[in-house]
Write a structure and sequence with these properties.
29% helix; five-stranded antiparallel β-sheet; Rossmann fold; seven-stranded mixed β-sheet; 10 helices; alpha/beta; 2 domains; 309 residues
Length: 309
């Protein structure tokens, strides 16, 4: 049962000790403001997500109960410049269930330019002319809503529009596998999706299957490994024509030399997971490794970079 800014009083329902907090805002709000507002209590939240639909912005937090609604209202008011009260938030105790799925179901399918992204609960047909990407509700590894993933998908579409024809693609830090799957659907060329997390590899493999992407050397291979030291990466003597790395600024800096070594001559890389303010540090490391900037894509405070060798 949903209600305004008070924890559930239904003691008959076994709770997880978590609360879901939702806030809907008009589409007129700037994305940068939405991002700052959503992340205002990031350190205290179990998870944060936001998405823009045709009806406006939907922001959702998951907190350990009780949710800090008063503090949240104060911070949202500060970032938006508009007054918000505790009654503006919808709070729901999360029962013992697949709460990731329950959370995901609150968001409708959405589009990122030519891509149509939807969950397993969607029973309609993707719009004609759109590239479908199904991301199962039960995963916590990224669905395309975040500015970093969105930036990468837009970067892939941009590169495809320029006539880029990669023969081998690497999705480093693959997570859900959404970027590797998107790359395969654009070029129909081999993709290696690598993640250090075994669960992420399992999820990426699951998504490969439900998106009807073939496995093996001519399709998409999902592998667990430690970055560029992964066995399958090291086995690629000629390197990769396209490397996608949507991780964090720190690892991007540390892996810059290894990325360059594994990038084929005239190869292209997409870097994301960095804040605008972290670009200088990330670029310095990659310029030192022989790469140069081709394009920048910005979503709120998040930056995606396209670099060439």
């Amino acid at each position: 049962m949903k209600k305004q800014a008070t924890p559930s009083e239904d003691s008959a329902v076994q709770s997880t000790g978590l609360s879901s907090v939702s806030l809907s805002l008009p589409s007129s709000y700037d994305e940068n403001i939405i991002g700052k507002a959503a992340l205002s209590l990031e350190d205290e939240a179990v998870s944060v997500s936001w998405v823009k639909t045709k009806y406006g912005w939907d922001i959702q937090w998951v907190f350990t109960s009780p949710a800090p609604i008063k503090a949240l209202a104060k911070l949202i008011s500060k970032h938006s410049g508009d007054p918000f009260k505790e009654s503006n938030f919808v709070v729901e105790d999360i029962p013992e269930t697949n709460w990731l799925e329950a959370s995901y179901l609150q968001f409708p399918p959405f589009e990122i330019k030519d891509f149509f992204i939807f969950g397993s609960h969607f029973d309609g047909k993707p719009p004609k002319g759109k590239i479908p990407l199904q991301i199962d509700a039960a995963t916590a590894f990224g669905s395309g809503e975040h500015g970093t993933t969105r930036g990468c998908l837009e970067a892939l579409l941009h590169l495809h529009s320029t006539g880029l024809k990669p023969k081998a693609i690497l999705d480093m830090g693959a997570g859900s596998g959404i970027l590797g799957i998107a790359a395969y659907k654009l070029w129909k060329k081999p993709v290696l999706a690598v993640d250090i997390d075994k669960e992420a590899t399992r999820v990426a493999c699951h998504h490969r299957k439900i998106n009807h992407v073939p496995s093996g050397d001519k399709g998409m291979v999902c592998a667990t490994g430690d970055g560029y030291a992964a066995r399958r990466v090291k086995a690629k003597d000629k390197g990769f024509d396209l490397i996608i790395a949507n991780i964090l600024a720190g690892p991007l800096v540390l892996m810059a030399e290894d990325l360059s070594k594994n990038l084929a001559k005239d190869g292209i890389t997409i870097l994301s997971g960095l804040l605008v303010e972290q670009e200088k540090e990330v670029l310095k490391a990659h310029k030192s490794a022989g790469l140069s900037v081709v394009k920048r894509i910005t979503h709120g405070e998040w930056r995606t970079l396209i670099l060439s060798k």
